[in-house]
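Exam revision sheet. Question 4 asks you to relate a sequence to its structure. Input first:
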Amino acid sequence: MNNRTPAGFSLLEMSIVLVIIGVITGGILLGKSMLMTSRLQTVMTDANNYITAVGNFKQQYQALPGDFSNATSLWGTDSVNCPSGGGATGTCNGNGDGMISGTGGTTYEIFRLWQHLYLAGLINQKMSGVTGPLNSYQAIAGTNVPIASVEGGSWGIEWLGGGATTNNVNAYYFPGFLGNTLLLGAAGASGGGSGILTADQAASIDTKMDDGMPATGKVRSTEASYAAAPNCTTSNAVTATYNVGVSGQLCVLLFPTGY
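Answer key, structure tokens:
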């Protein structure tokens, strides 16, 4: 009869196991980092492509998508009812004022925009052109606005206006003219969306595409008081910077189109 007690792991064997676990963990983290880097690169590519698509549409039709007042003559009238119907075919006209509106009676323009771009063959994702069932601002990624490469993210375009010395809509944005602006955020009940990027990620995109400053240039972010994306940046418009190192999906990015 063998009464020997089974031997446990030796220190060498335990060390080897710990090394293997470390290598696997490191590989997973590296893989996640590379995946996010790829997604952020796609964000930059998509932003340029959507702005280009809007410019090409304006050049071809002498109007902005969504705001296009003669769209139904080209693509038919929505078979349910304009301006906010949900028919399977056709579209609706915008009011032609040069502003892709996200307010008042022309809220639907921010969704018809993507439908017009699709109908014109300028984007590949087919969009419904109508709001979600919750309210007139509800964005649904993949249905009425394009899905972004960052998980949970979506794209939108709307008129944000602004002036040289005054803040834009509800003081959500830093002072300065924005006009028709491409936005990257989390789709939801609000047209502007909520935070989808960390401050580090937003700063990285801004630095690679522009000046790295959230209050100026062709890549910007929301002001710190914006409750749906709080503390992405510091609040002083003159010295504003991204709050890099602060965790959480804090940031919405803005890309003024120039149109």
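Marking note for examiners. Helices lie at 11-61, 71-75, 109-119, 199-209.
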